[in-house]
Amino acid sequence: MNITSLILRVLAIAGAIAAVVLFMQIKDFHEEMEGEIATTRGQIQESEENLRVMTDDRDAERARADGLESDLEDARAEIDVLERNLAQTERDLQEARSDLRDARRNISQLEDERDELNQRNAELDRRIAQMEDEHERTLVSLRQQVASLEEELDEAEAAQVDDRDVAGMDWDDFNGVTDERDEPEPVVTGPISGLVSAVGSDSAFVVLNQGSEDGVRENINYAVFRGDRAIARVRVSEARENLAIAQVLPGTLDRSIRQGDTFRSID
């Protein structure tokens, strides 16, 4: 009986020791689990914070993606416009190239025409130079003849004055007057007009650019004009083939005659 009690006591003591050990183990395990729980909670909180941040980042990326999508649509629309503009530009370029080819052809034709005109101008310059030389020689000859005629006229007038009784006469009325009754009847021709090629000293005579081949006849009167105004009357004293010499009629000179003034028949 005593042994049984002893065993029971030993078992009770062993059970108590086991219970204490188990309690201590449970306590340590509990503390360890609480630590792990706290760590886990911290991790969960950190994960939640990270999730919140990631959610915010995701929302921001979605907003950015929406903005990029809108920008992409705008870019596509702009590309469509640029493509249409490019197509129009290509058409305009083709037209411009065609116009350029036409312009080059026109330039080539104009250059050919220019070269031809230059050749014609060179020939005209040569002919003008020849005509100017001939005209100058003719003018020199005419001036000499006019000077000789003026000398003869002065001598004739002096001889007439010696033979006449000039007492009481006004010299201004007498000077340069000719007796028209002694002049031959002028030959009537059609209307004639032209230019004054040269003018004598003090507008005493003029050289006309029309001659006998143009219908100019000697002793025919013509009016000299500057613009629409008559400034003198002249009478042809010598008619050559292509020019004529005309004396300015006394009392008809309104102003000095210039080279380039016009003349025409008197109606």
Order of strands across the main sheet: 1-2-5-4-3-6
Strand content: 5-15%
Please trace the helix and strand order, writing H or E for each element.
HHEEEEEE
Question: What value does the average pLDDT take?
Answer: 81
User: CATH class of the domain at 187-265, please?
Assistant: Mainly Beta
Q: Would you identify the CATH architecture of the domain at 187-265?
A: Beta Barrel
Q: What is CATH's topology name of the domain at 187-265? A: Thrombin, subunit H
Low-confidence stretches: 159-188
Categorize the overall geometry. rod-shaped
Helix content: 55-70%
How many extended strands? 6
Largest β sheet strand count, sense and barrel closure: 6 strands, antiparallel, barrel
Distance between the termini: 191 Å
Could you explain the architecture of this structure?
With 267 residues, the protein is of the alpha+beta class. It has a domain at 187-265: Rod shape-determining protein MreC, domain 1 (Thrombin, subunit H, Beta Barrel). Helix content is 62%, strand content 14%. It has 2 helices and 6 strands; from the N terminus they run H-H-E-E-E-E-E-E. A 6-stranded antiparallel beta barrel has the order 1-2-5-4-3-6. A hairpin with a 2-residue loop joins strand 3 (221-226) and strand 4. The protein starts with a helix and ends with a strand. Residues 159-188 have low confidence and may be disordered.
